[in-house]
Specification:
Elements: H1 2-48, H2 53-71, H3 74-96, E1 126-128, E2 131-132, E3 143-149, E4 152-155, E5 164-174, E6 177-181, E7 186-200, E8 203-216, E9 225-235, E10 238-242
Parallel strand pairs: 1-3, 2-4, 3-5, 4-6, 5-9, 6-10, 7-9, 7-10
Antiparallel strand pairs: 7-8
Helix pairs in contact: 1-2, 1-3
Length: 243
């Protein structure tokens, strides 16, 4: 009974928060986008020069400005208040109706058991900093990462791609993405960007703004080795080169 009410409460809070966010974007959308773009630029440029005093000031000033802007948003304030109210309701309900846990023992079903092995990934999801593939031979595995601020470099010349289609998926907020592909491998590129440049082999897309485009080599669907590249950038450049 309470579970249904709790779900309804969360749904209403999400709807109200979304409504407030839409209102704020209608009246302050251009201003907010400009401020966050400037702050992201300060963080990116300052991060490149963090060894200098000016770079540190620019970097931390960008984070401070972004935090202050976020805290001043009406929708963000509502979300904080809603979370606090929700936590208070949870504490009250837990004290009023303490949960009793009864252990349930089941015999293992051999028909449903299977072995799982965890592999170490080439990349990690990070908030800030550059990432790149090793400069020595490494075992290939599909890449699916999301990053905050920083450059990503993927060099496929130090690995052996398997037969069929391999996939690289990179989602980045601010930074550049460089991907080096061997000549014998067919390539498909799907790129989405808010602001930046894109270079795919001999094709250059300068000053791309809020665009989505796709390219693939003429032998892509017939090739025995294929690499599918899916990239998303808010601000930054994409470069795909042969090596």
């Amino acid at each position: 009974m309470f579970s249904g009410k709790k779900t309804d409460l969360i749904s209403w809070l999400l709807l109200i928060g979304l409504f407030l966010l839409i209102l704020e974007l209608i009246f302050r959308g251009g201003e907010l986008i400009f401020i966050f773009a400037v702050m992201a630029g300060c963080i990116y440029v300052g991060g490149k020069r963090r060894t200098r005093t000016f770079g540190k000031l620019l970097y931390w000033g960008g984070w401070f400005g972004a935090a202050v802007t976020l805290l001043n948003m009406m929708a963000f304030k509502f979300v904080l208040v809603a979370i606090l109210i929700y936590l208070l309701i949870q504490v009250y309900q837990n004290k009023k109706r303490p949960a009793w846990i009864k252990p349930e023992i089941r015999e293992p079903d051999s028909r449903l058991s299977e072995s799982l092995f965890k592999k170490k990934n080439l990349f990690k999801n990070i908030v800030y900093g550059p990432q790149q593939t090793p400069d020595h031979v490494y075992e290939w595995e599909d890449i699916n990462i999301q990053c905050g601020i920083g450059d990503t470099v993927i060099d496929l010349s130090n690995t052996v791609l398997p037969e069929g289609e391999s996939v690289i998926t990179v989602r980045n907020i601010v930074g550049n993405i460089k991907i080096f592909v061997p000549y014998e491998v067919a390539v498909s590129v799907h790129h989405s960007v808010f602001a930046g440049n894109a270079t795919i082999f001999d094709i250059h897309e300068p000053r791309v703004f809020n665009q989505l485009f796709s390219y693939h080599t003429d032998n892509y669907y017939e090739a025995s080795q294929r690499i599918k590249i899916i990239t998303t950038l808010a601000v930054g450049d994409l470069e795909v080169k042969r090596t």
